[in-house]
TrEMBL record:
Protein known as: DNA-directed RNA polymerase
Lineage top rank: taxon: Eukaryota
PANTHER family assigned: DNA-DIRECTED RNA POLYMERASE, MITOCHONDRIAL
A GO term, aspect molecular function: mitochondrial promoter sequence-specific DNA binding
Entry's localization field: Mitochondrion
Lineage start: Eukaryota, Metazoa, Chordata, Craniata, Vertebrata
A GO BP annotation: mitochondrial transcription
Species assigned in the record: Cyanoderma ruficeps (rufous-capped babbler)
Family: Belongs to the phage and mitochondrial RNA polymerase family.
Biased composition (Gly residues): 11-21, 40-53
């Protein structure tokens, strides 16, 4: 990127929001789920990722910031351009900029107008926002070539924007030929802000004093005493020590804010009301618990207790206090053996109206065991335990312990009951699901399949994985490293190395100064409450995190809110890892894993256990030590954002670069590397952090040969830890959730924790089975892809070209104010295309670099699931859910002989990948493959120099990989004995409609989606297109103009997406957009008829589907109406899958909370279970989500029964993979489990569950029985009737999955 005027990129630059966001199927909006779509979005180590992950990605792909259900993700933060205190309507509140920038059906003229408007809104972009920032903060002025600042026109307005002493407010002046003076629009905006500030000043005097007192109360805990520095003991593994120095600091502290400065800060805040709703109460409760755990982790028991009592004396906080808060503090004293403190807290607990729970008594007994108290004291607590309705045995059956706590409790009990014996571990419960009776039957149990590794090899792999996770990040070589090193690159790398060393020291100094400033007694600072969170890790860890963010930043910049959230989340993740180390959990995991290897290693005895069962057995036998499923308190979103914003502010202030580093003719003045600017959308102002062009140019010149990823973004080097509960499984140390869900949505986790664990066994076992599939790299294909990637890429083959191939923008003469609309539009399109290319290039770079890193290794993908039960690999960038390129370079690590029919299946699979014979029978596809064997062998032998037949296929890279496999097998002495590692796919035929047709026993629908045996595959899309054409002909004969215009334009391709997404809840509006997009792709279609034609066609498509799938529409309407009535009653829609997985839809009305975080205000959209349900989303999303829960159930049943049959099995939702040898067996299992699933009374069971949950007297709403309940009962009781289709016909249907 050349140094020059940095143009503000509209959508937040680099990486889109990661950590828990998924690009998946749209439920309510109707976009069909793509198998290539990935969980999460982001750059390396961003906790997100996937198919479209990459730097700059959030800017250019409108569909990526989606939640698990496909609905737009909630906005992390947006700042208002309106005067503070002015609220916007709900229509656009909280929606990210990148969601607004979606593809449109607007005409070319409308787009030009819109883009012109976009350009006009950039009139102040960096400049005005930067002026405000310089006036309102101490952030150093950024000097950028040709980006100058225009002075504000009125001193009064300046004071209003940034109140405070004028001498402290530097006013930037215009230099050279910077931008023209502010427009009328800008002046009016400033005037509005000034008027609003005056109004607020009149309202806030009392609020200011209230806030000051409230802030002082919050800080009292930390201000009263300055504890001594301590160092915690760490387990053997890590070399690092946790920085627990309470007042650790060096260097000069920040200057103290003046009284005027504090007053001004308070003036700008709105008075915060007491939390009256459940949402605020929950956040406050979570914050209190997080603060207490933070104190306890730092061994600050005094501060923890003082903070607890402060909360106890606060009327607001007392309401949300529960016994858990007291237990946290008591556990801290118990570790120190301070029984008198625990006695005191027991008294306070009871006096406040709370009752001690089982954990409270366990803590007290642990303390007495550690202190070796007298039998009399121990007996007193045991008697109180009994009188509270508990039994001693429950302490060991229900409580979770850390380190040696369990031993201490046992010692205390045996002091008064010397013969007491631990209760025996409960006998394993067996899942009672009728679908899995045979699977869990001990009579049919078989030995768990072995891996091709010895015990020693697996132990070495486990240690390698553990070391990677302990380091938190991993640096790998980029596939671009093979490029020749130029003198310019050598010099740039040397400069960057020197600068990074200086930046590291500067950030460390700024962090220490900040902590020193915060740690002072009686210091009133908005950041002081963050002080303990800045002491959780060694200072070096915080610096490493900030340096990683800096190194990963895209030239286009990134949303400030995304970066803040990421910084806070990285600190939290490392903190959780440290907690696991300090609790002794890691040592126990190591010990259990060493024994667990015996189940998998080839040189150990066969064992008839599932991975979960064997792990549970080993843990029970281990007896003492910490509990492995310890629950971690998650930090509230606001806390993560505040912490991240503080770290980001330190980063922006500390990191500087000499202005003349690339041009020695300039003065050597240090200028900031990062600067805070704004992008505008209507009245919304989105904060961005952008790198200085000098930094971007340096990075570009250096063409560095390494990439840094979080360890959780990499495939595992050993078999995953088996899932045994909702809070334990997958990685060795990295924090992983069993169920992914939207931020601050806790109902899913509560449902899972309340669900009897035995009901979750099938789901856990299925995830373990998917995760235990070992993989390796197809090296020949990878090398070809890398060679094209490092040449100039090839968009046709899905290899993104480098930015050097981006379209060159036209020369723009004069000032931007003189540019024509067409020129601005052309520049805009060039900028957009460049950003898209950068995003896709980075995405491919990440995937290929990770694949290259593990090219000689065997690896595993641990799995988890979304709230509907759909499964996903945890590593976000490189996995088998990826695109054609990613899938082509993956092979099963286990090889199996092809057998008598394996080579035929490879050939059929190849023809399926080409997309050439979709309507032909399998035998015809096989015959065609044999006819073109010469092309297949030529592609395999000379992929880049031959006739290149493989390049013309639908999935070229998978086709090439398959050609190579066929060539090797066909040339083997005995093809049947050839050992193949190649995965063969069997794909469902419009799987959503298959489930609907089976639910409704819809005869015509079943025939259309291949549930009925037939000699040729039925194509539902062609059938619908044919039906629509018949409707069109009739209308054309009647003289309907648009029907006549459409003659010859109705095809399978035009209607396919809309037909496909009907099952996923697409509306007529969404369907019209889909059809319009397809018509636009037809050059001959007249543009002036686009809207009318798409409107006409979507109506006919819906009519056709209604006619062909009558039972399907009835069921969909029944589900939709039921969900609507449930949501209108104030409840969320819940159900339980046939495998016992509880599901709740996470759609709630959102509310915004404004955080004043120093650099800017952030508006957080809270959408959690304490809000009212969003009726529209609950209604529209229920049918597709219900169907998704069924297809995930079918997949899990197939996975488990394939395990019993000895198959290797993985899936990409409704596409099942196995070896060529076992395709026939998998097909049989797949059909058996589909018939078994739909033989259950699925709709009847759903009706009964919902009637019990929503209409029974015990769980009725607090409102009196009303019409809504009567209507709901009638609706739920009226289950749609089923047709005459015989489900057993699926067993003989060749093209059901093919």
């Amino acid at each position: 990127m050349a140094a020059g005027p940095p143009r503000l990129m509209a959508a937040g630059g680099g990486r889109a929001a990661g950590g828990g966001r998924w690009a998946m199927a749209t439920a309510a909006t109707g976009d069909r789920p793509r198998r290539r779509d990935r969980p999460g979005i982001g750059g390396p180590g961003r906790g997100g990722g996937g198919e479209w992950a990459g730097r700059g990605l959030g800017r250019c792909l409108p569909f990526i910031n989606r939640r698990p259900d496909g609905l737009p993700g909630s906005l992390v933060a947006v700042t208002r351009l309106l005067p503070r205190g002015v609220r916007l309507g709900a229509a656009h509140s909280g929606i990210p900029w990148r969601i607004f920038r979606s593809y449109s059906s607007a005409s070319t003229k409308e787009k030009a107008n819109r883009n012109g408007t976009c350009e006009r809104t950039e009139l102040l972009e960096v400049l005005k926002a930067r002026a405000k920032q310089l006036q309102g903060s101490n952030v150093p002025e950024v000097t950028v070539n040709k980006v100058e600042l225009t002075a504000l026109d009125n001193d009064k307005y300046q004071e209003a924007v940034a109140p405070g002493p004028k001498e402290n407010q530097p006013i930037p002046r215009a230099r050279g030929d910077g931008l023209a003076q502010s427009s009328t629009w800008a002046k009016k905006l400033q005037k509005d802000m000034y008027v609003q500030q005056l109004k607020m000043k009149q309202e806030l005097p009392s609020a200011a004093s209230q806030l000051a007192l409230e802030d002082q109360a919050k800080l009292e805990v930390k201000a009263e005493a300055r504890p001594k520095a301590k160092t915690m003991k760490s387990p053997k593994i890590p070399d690092k020590k946790v920085a627990t120095a309470w007042s650790q600091s060096s260097g000069s502290p920040h200057t103290k804010p003046t009284v005027a400065g504090v007053k001004d800060t308070v003036e700008l805040k709105r008075p915060q009301r007491m939390p009256r709703d459940k949402n605020n109460q929950q956040v406050l409760q979570q914050t209190i618990q997080s603060d207490l755990e933070c104190f306890v982790f730092l061994q600050k028991s005094e501060e923890a207790e003082r903070y607890l009592l402060l909360c106890q004396n606060s009327p607001v906080k007392k309401k949300v206090m529960d016994v858990g808060a007291y237990n946290i503090v008591m556990r801290s004293w118990a570790r120190k053996g301070c029984l008198n403190r625990i006695d005191r807290l027991f008294s306070i607990l009871e006096s406040s109206g709370l009752q001690p729970n089982l954990e409270s008594f366990a803590v007290a007994l642990e303390c007495m065991g550690r202190k070796q108290s007298s039998p009399k004291a121990i007996l007193r607590y045991l008697q109180q335990l009994n009188s509270s309705g508990f039994h001693v045995d429950e302490l060991f059956q229900k409580c979770l312990f850390e380190e040696d706590e369990k031993e201490m409790v046992l010692w205390a009990i045996r002091t008064v009951q010397p013969n007491y014996q631990l209760p025996p571990p409960p006998s394993p419960e067996i899942c009672k699901s009728s679908l899995l009776q045979d699977f869990y039957s001990r009579e049919t149990m078989v030995s768990y399949p072995k891996l091709d590794f010895s015990v020693k090899e697996l132990q070495e792999r486990f240690q390698e994985q553990l070391e990677m996770e302990l380091k938190n990040t991993i640096i790998i070589e980029s596939v671009e490293a093979a490029k020749p090193l130029t003198p310019q690159a050598v010099k740039a790398r040397e400069l960057l190395s020197i600068l990074r060393s200086q930046w590291h020291d500067a950030i460390l100094q700024a962090l220490q100064n900040s902590k020193c400033s915060m740690g002072r007694p009686k210091r009133l600072s908005k950041y002081s409450i963050l002080y303990p969170y800045l002491c959780l890790l060694p200072d070096e860890d915080y610096v490493d995190i900030m340096m990683q963010i800096l190194n990963d930043l895209s030239p286009q910049g990134e949303s400030l809110a995304v970066l803040a959230r990421e910084l806070g989340s990285k600190v939290y993740d490392r903190y959780i890892t440290q907690r696991k180390l300090h609790s002794g959990q890691l040592e126990k995991v190591q010990k259990v894993y060493e024994d667990y290897i015996q189940l998998l290693a080839k040189d150990s005895q066969p064992k008839q256990y599932l991975p979960r069962e064997y792990w549970e057995k080993l843990v029970a036998e281990a007896g003492f030590g910490p509990s492995l499923n310890l629950k971690n308190c998650s930090w509230p979103c606001a806390l993560l954002m505040r912490l991240g914003m503080h770290m980001l502010e330190l980063l922006v202030k500390a990191v500087k670069v000499p202005r003349n580093i690339l041009n020695r003719r300039l003065e050597s003045k240090p200028i900031p590397v990062l600067y805070h600017v704004y992008s505008f959308y209507s009245n919304w102002q989105v904060g961005l952090i952008k790198p200085h062009p000098i930094f971007s140019q340096l990075v570009s010149n250096a063409a560095e040969a390494t990439l840094t990823f979080n360890s959780s973004a990499m495939p595992m080097l050993c078999p995953p830890v088996p899932w045994t509960s909702p809070s334990f499984g997958a990685f060795v140390l990295n924090n992983t959730k069993l169920m992914r869900f939207v931020d601050d949505t806790t109902h899913h986790q509560l449902l899972l924790e309340q669900c009897p664990l035995v009901n979750l066994h099938p789901v856990l076992d299925a995830l373990n089975q998917l995760g235990n599939c070992a993989w390796k790299i197809n090296q020949p294909v990878l090398d070809i892809i890398i060679s094209i990637f490092n040449d100039k890429g090839d968009e046709k083959l899905g290899i993104p070209p480098p930015l050097s191939e981006a379209p060159k923008p036209p020369t723009a003469p004069g000032h931007s104010s003189t540019w024509s609309k067409s020129l601005k539009h052309e520049l805009f399109l060039c900028k957009k295309k460049t950003a898209e290319m950068h995003s896709l290039r980075m995405d491919a770079l990440y995937k290929l670099s990770i694949a290259n890193h593990v090219r000689d290794k065997v690896f595993w993908f641990p799995h988890n699931m979304d709230f509907r039960g759909r499964t996903y690999p945890c590593p976000p960038y490189f996995n088998h859910l990826g695109n054609d390129v990613t899938r082509a370079i993956l092979l099963f690590a286990e090889g199996r002989p092809l057998g008598p029919k394996g080579l035929d299946w490879l050939k059929i699979h190849l023809i399926n990948l080409t997309g050439l014979k979709k309507k032909n029978a399998l035998q015809e596809r096989l015959d065609y493959a044999n006819e073109i064997m010469e092309e297949i062998l030529d592609s395999a032998d000379r992929p880049l120099t031959g006739r290149k037949w493989w390049m013309e296929t639908d999935e070229p890279w998978q086709a090439l990989a398959c050609c190579m496999e066929i060539a090797k097998a066909s040339r083997a002495p005995d093809p049947a004995a050839y050992i193949s590692h190649f995965p063969v796919h069997q794909d469902g035929s419009c799987n959503g409609l298959q489930h609907y047709a089976a639910l409704g026993r819809d005869l015509s629908g079943a025939a259309s989606v291949n549930l009925v045996p037939c000699g040729l595959p039925q194509d539902v899309y062609s059938a619908v297109a044919q039906q629509v054409e018949e409707f069109r002909k009739k209308d054309a004969e009647r003289g309907v103009k648009i029907a006549q215009v459409l003659q010859g334009f109705i095809s399978r391709k035009v209607v396919k997406q809309t037909v496909m997404t009907v099952v996923y809840g697409v509306t007529r509006y969404g369907g019209r957009l889909q059809i319009e997009k397809r018509l636009k792709e037809i050059d001959e279609f007249p543009e002036e008829y686009l809207w009318e034609a798409s409107h006409y066609l979507v109506k006919q498509v819906f009519n056709s589907i209604k006619e062909m799938f009558s039972a399907t529409r009835d069921i969909q309407n029944w589900l939709t109406e039921s969900a609507k009535l449930i949501a209108q009653s104030g409840r969320t829609v819940e159900w339980v899958t046939p495998l016992g997985l509880p599901i709740i839809q996470p759609y709630y009305r959102s509310r915004s909370t404004v955080l004043d975080c120093g650099m800017q205000r952030l508006s957080l959209r809270n959408s959690n279970s304490n809000q009212k349900p969003d009726t529209v989303k609950q209604k529209n999303a229920f049918p597709p989500n219900f169907i998704h829960s069924l297809d995930s159930t079918h997949m899990m049943l197939t996975a488990l029964h394939c395990l019993r049959r000895g198959l290797t099995f993985v899936s990409v939702h409704d596409c099942y993979w196995t070896h060529a040898l076992t395709v026939d067996v998998m097909n049989q299992v797949c059909r058996q489990q589909f018939v078994a699933l739909h033989s259950e009374k699925i709709l009847q069971d759903l009706s009964e569950f919902m009637l019990e949950k929503y209409c029974s007297s015990s769980s009725s709403s607090t409102e009196p029985i009303a019409n809504w309940q009567k209507r709901l009962m009638e609706q739920l009781s009226n289950v749609p009737r089923t047709g005459e289709f015989n489900l057993n016909q699926v067993m003989d249907s060749t093209y059901f999955f093919s």
